[in-house]
Structure formats: structure tokens, C-alpha cells
Amino acid sequence: MASTQLHGASVGDRIYRFTTTAFALSIPLLLVLLAIEVVVAAWPALKAFHLGFLTSSEWDAVNGVFGAAPAIYGTLVSSLLALLIATPLAIGVAIFLSEFAPPWLRQPVAFLVDLLAAIPSVVYGLWGIFVLVPFLREHVMPFLADRLHLGDTPLFSGPAYGPSMLAAGLILAIMVLPYISSVTREVLMAVPRSQREAALALGATRWEMIWGAVLPYASSGVMGGVILGLGRALGETMAVTMVIGNRHEISSSLFAPGYTMASVIANEFSEATNDMHLSALMAVGAVLLAITLVVNIIARWLVWRVERRGQA
Amino acid sequence: MATTEPQVRATDAAATAVAAPAPTALVSVRALDAFFGPTRAVRDVSLDFLEGQVTAIIGPSGCGKSTLLRCLNRMHETVVTARVEGEVRLDGKDIYDRGVNPIEVRRRIGMVFQRPTPVPTMSIRDNVTAGFRAAGSGAPSRTEQHEIAEWALRRAALWDEVKDRLNDSAMALSGGQQQRLCIARALATRPRVLLLDEPTASLDPLSTQKIEELVYELRGDVTVVIVTHNMQQAARVSDRTAFMLMGDLVEVAPTSRMFTSPADERTEAYITGRFG
Predict the structure, then answer these.
(1) β B93-94/A65-66 pair status
(2) Could you tell me if residue A176 is inside a domain?
(3) Do B182 and A204 lie within an 8 Å CB cutoff?
(4) B78 to A200: CB separation less than 8 angstroms, yes or no
(5) Alpha-carbon distances of B20 from A215, B187, B220, rounded to whole Å
(6) Which of B121, B128, B169, B190 is the best substitution to test chain A (most A C-beta atoms within 10 A)?
(7) Which CATH number do you get for residue A108?
(8) Torsion over CA of B105, B109, B110 and B112, rounded to 10 degrees?
(9) Considering the domain boundaries, does residue A34 fall inside one?
(10) Min CA distance, B59 vs chain A (Å)?
(11) Residues on chain B touching A199 (C-beta within 8 angstroms)
(12) How sure is the predictor about B234, in pLDDT bands with cuts at 50, 70 and 90?
């Protein structure tokens, strides 16, 4: 059917296609292999403790009893706290940059905000230990507990040591802010001009236009950005380990120290001498992997939905 | 130019709907220039839009007709580097005067665009009342909103098609329905002037026909200015037609005269299809 020349071209095409396909497949394959590897290694611990691994608070490496509930709780709470603080700030920054900032200011500020993401997390941790934690202990915690009389509420009770869930949440908030704000900026800028004009033509003020037309149009993309930030916060290790206090205990108070899954792994992998301990750490890794995967898939899906609507 | 000639009935059909006494100018444009950066998109245009009438603005792409339209409710200036000189008087008051709030102007002069622009996350009802809610002082009650929505949807000839699903997303509607929804939204604030910027450009023939019938229905109550590429559309819906070319207003005349015996040879060349 094809001439010799065309045939020759199609061989080259086939090789090219084969090579690129192989490259493309190697990444998902790597992910699958990694997941299998982690689950296999975690299997003894999961088999020994069943659901208790997720619900028990007892983590005793010496006696070989492992329950990861405090770490799971700590990861979730510190991440949610971070989102609670970072989301309004990040959306505010994004709205300013995409709607209000004069063009000469837009690029530099966007660059500086993005730069927050480039700071190594151990540097955040150092700053956390020597600046943030003492500041919390001496000013913020006494202020919340005594001045605002919140010391009796479960959220702010107990002694103010410094290293705490609150410190972890704050440091995570700073770290995830650039992710949320840069995704939000992108989706806000992707809102078609026609939507903005429609709102303006109805007699909307600039603020009403942003609130009533631009943000609703971009809402699921903004949500995607927030969840992307959540994905970052869940996996963050170094900075959190340095300020959270590393204690296997669930406490309702944000002043109390806690633990996260990533911190448990980072702190204990070098001391894990028996097989069960190692397997328990792997199981913590598996749980963390599963949570972050799900969170990231949701984020991608939400952003994709906005982009598709933008083109329609 | 030619703005004060006696009003000649455009078509027999129009004659039945238009009030008998000679209509007055509701919107008067005087010596209007509109710029995009250094480009002068509208050049020294003076033109009256008569109360209760439909005026069509025709001309080839890039002739400045949409820009002229967007000067009438101060939308032109929302584009970066855009600038306007001259006067646009609504009821004798220059909307470009210092101290005139463009937001107030836009609340009194409704606008519908080429592509339907419902807010995708809002229900049909909320879309209709969006402008009304923005314009209203204090939050209107639920019943009040519903009444306004029904009134505007009936006016836009959409009520019968959507009355059972007012809480559905506006995105569930067809393109033509969405466009009528946008007209309803513009009407909900009871503007005296309605600006339509090629409102049927993205619609199929049947939806186009519905919009044209609607525009025809609105004359008398609302002063309509419609920008269109389609000369048949201008002939069908308008009382008067203005022809623009390269930013200049070439001619404005009653539609029937415009399409039978235009005064300017450039107009004749355009409407007989020799260019554009």
C-alpha cells in the first residue's frame, strides 16, 4: 500500500513512538513499583495490628506495639490548620496580583511570593525553632490564653511549651501559601474577559465583579489550588519535625506538642532495629502515600474542570 | 450628521408599534472620538438615538461600530489604554462629565454581548436577578427577586421554557436560551437603553429569529441600539440604521430609506455587497 519512502518514514515513526511511549510509561510504572514496594514492606505491621494500626495511640518501639493514630491525627490537623490560615491570605494575594496590582508591581510581587516555595524547608525549620517558637511561647500563646481568656477552651488549654501543633500549622501555612496563591492567580487570569465585562455592564463595581463573577467562575480551580497546598502540607517533613514537638499523643489543644506521619518516619528510620518497627514505619509511609495521592488526584481534577470550562 | 430629519416610518410593521408623535433623542452622541492607545477607532461621530426606537449600526469588521456602542455605557474605558473624547448625553446629561459614576451609567444602560455570558455557577433565577441585586440598595426579598425574575424572563420570551427549572444551572440552557437569559438579566434592572453587540453572532438561525422577534417586541418601551454584521437583520429589526466605515459615521437614515436609496455611494457599495 505505502511506497518505499513512506514505509521508511513509518519505521522511523514507529521507533520514535516506541521510545517516547517507553519513557512516558516508565514514570507511572515507577510510581506503581514504589507503592507495591511500600505496601509489601508494610504488610507484617498491617497484618499484626489490623485496623488498630490506624486507631491506636500506643507507639512503643521497645515492646513492639505500634499505633499510628497520633501521627495521622497530627498530619491532618496541622495541614488543615495551615490551610485555614493560608487560604484567605493566598486568595487575597492572588486577587491583588491579578485584578488590582499595577503591571509594574505584578511580576516582582508574584516572583517574591513564588520564591517562598523555593526556600529549603530546613531553613523554615531553623527559623521556626529560633524565632517562631519562642515568639509563640512568649507572646502569642499567653495572649490567646490569658488576654482573650481562651485558656479554658479545649483548643488553647495547657502549658505553653512552644513546640506545638500551632507552630507546625503556622510554619506549614507559610510554606503552602505560594502554591495556593500561584494556582489561584492562574485560574483568575484564565477567567474570560467576557465574564468580567458582563458583570461590569450590569453595573457591578470592581469588587462585585470579582466576588460575583470572577471568583465563582474560578471557584473549582481555586479549590484545586487549596488542595494542592494540602498535598504539600501533608507530606512536609523537615520544618514540621523541627517545631511540632514530636510526641505520640493526641491532644485537642493546639498548644500541645504532636507528631506527623512524615516526622515519625524521619525521626525513627535510623533507630528501627527490629523488623516490626521497620514495617510499622513503612505502613505509616503507605498511609501517607495513599492520602497524598488521593488529595492530588482531586486537585488535578478540579483544576482540569475549570480549564475545560474556560475553553468551552 | 443628518440627525434631525423628520421621522419616516421604517417599515409597515414598525409603524404599528412606534408611538405617534415624533420621538425625541434619548441618547445624543456629539463629536465622539474613541482610542485604543494611539489608534483612533471612532472618529468624530455625532448621532442621535431616538427614544423607543431600534437603531442598527452596520459596517464591515473593524469599522468601530462595537467601539461606538461600548462608548454609550462607558464600557470602552474598561480596556487598558482605551480613551474617549467627546460627549454622550443621556437625557441631556453628559455621561462623561466629571463626577458621573460609570457604574451608575451602566446600571441605567443595559448591554448584551456577542457570546452569551451567564454566570456558570448561578441558577437561572440568580442569573436574571444578578444585576438587580447589584443595583438594589439593600437585599431584595426572595419574593421580590422571584417577581423580577418572572417579569424579566417573560419580557425576554424565555419564561415558558424555564419556569419549571429556575433553580437549575444556567449552563443547562442552549446558546440561544442563554442569550435570551442575558437579555432578561439586562432588562431586570429596567434600563431605558439596551445595547446589543452582535447578539446573534454565535447563534443558529432559529435562535436568531427568536432574538430578532424579541428586539422587535422591546421597541416602544426600551431604546435599543444593535450592532450587527448582518444587513438583513438590520433591515428586519431596526427603525433607523447607521453605517460606519473605518471609524467614520458615513450615514444615518430611516432603515427603509437606507436600504432602498442610500445617500452616500459608500453605503450603497456596502449594502449591495461590493465590499465588506
Answers:
(1) unpaired
(2) yes
(3) no
(4) yes
(5) 48, 24, 11
(6) B121
(7) 1.10.3720.10
(8) -100
(9) no
(10) 23
(11) 119, 130
(12) very high
B75: nearest CA partner in chain A:
A201
Would residue B183 count as lying in a domain? no
For the cut 70, the answer to whether the pLDDT of residue A136 exceeds it is yes
Instruction: Tell me, yes or no, whether A3 lies in a domain.
Output: no
Q: Which domain does B53 fall in, by range?
A: 22-122+196-271
Beta pairing partners, B123: B169
Q: What are phi and psi of B53, to 5 degrees?
A: -105, 165
Contacts of B178 in chain A (CB under 8 A): none
- On the question of pLDDT at A287 being above 80, the answer is yes
User: Which whole number is the average pLDDT over A114-128?
Assistant: 93
Q: Assess if residue B112 is contained within a domain.
A: yes
What is the secondary structure of B197-251 as a DSSP string?
ESTTTTS-HHHHHHHHHHHHHHTTTSEEEEE-S-HHHHHHH-SEEEEEETTEEEE
Chain B residues touching residue A214 (CB < 8 angstroms): none
pTM: 0.77
Predicted confidence (pLDDT) at residue B52 exceeds the cutoff of 50: yes
Task: Nearest by CB to B121, from A198, A204, A219: name it.
Answer: A219
Instruction: Count structural domains, chain B.
Output: 1
Residue from B119, B169, B198 whose CB has the most chain A CBs within 10 Å, to mutate? B119
| Main-chain phi, psi angles of B115, to 5 degrees | -105, 145
A102: nearest CA partner in chain B: B80
How many domains does chain A fold into?
1
Q: Rounded distance, CA A69 to CA A215, Å?
A: 37
Backbone phi, then psi, for B250, in 5-degree steps?
Answer: -80, -45
Are A197 and B75 a contacting pair at CB < 8 A?
yes
Contact A205/B at CB under 8 A:
yes
Q: Is A219 in the B-facing interface, judged by CB distances under 8 Å? A: yes
Domain interval for residue A55: 49-311
**Within-domain flag for B234:** yes
Cβ of B119 and A213 within 8 Å?
yes
Q: Chain B residues with CB inside 8 Å of A204's CB?
A: 103, 131, 134
What would the pLDDT profile of B92-142 be if each residue is shown by its tens digit?
899 999 889 998 899 889 999 998 988 888 889 888 888 777 655 566 778
Place of cell 429556575: B166
How much is the ipTM here? Answer: 0.80
The proportion of chain B whose per-residue pLDDT surpasses 70, expressed as a percent, equals 89
Q: For chain B, give the mean pLDDT.
A: 85
CA distance B205 to chain A (A): 21
CB contact under 8 Å between B111 and A201, yes or no, is yes
Residue B19, pLDDT score: 46
pLDDT digits (tens, 9 = 90+) for B151-179: 999 988 899 899 899 888 888 898 889 99
A3 has a pLDDT exceeding 90: no
As a three-state string, the secondary structure of B155-187 is HCCCHHHHCCCCCCEHHHCCHHHHHHHHHHHHH
Q: Which of B103, B113, B117 sits opposite A205 (nearest CB)?
A: B103
- Mean pLDDT lowest among A276-290, B10-24, B26-40, B56-70: B10-24
Residue B68 domain flag:
yes
CATH number at residue B104: 3.40.50.300
Residue at A128 is within a domain: yes
Cell of A19: 521510545
A101 part of contact set with chain B, CB < 8 Å? no
Interval A74-93: pLDDT, tens: 999 999 999 999 999 999 99
Put simply, whether A100 touches B (Cβ < 8 Å) is no
Length reported for chain A = 312
Reply yes or no on whether the pLDDT at A151 is more than 70.
yes
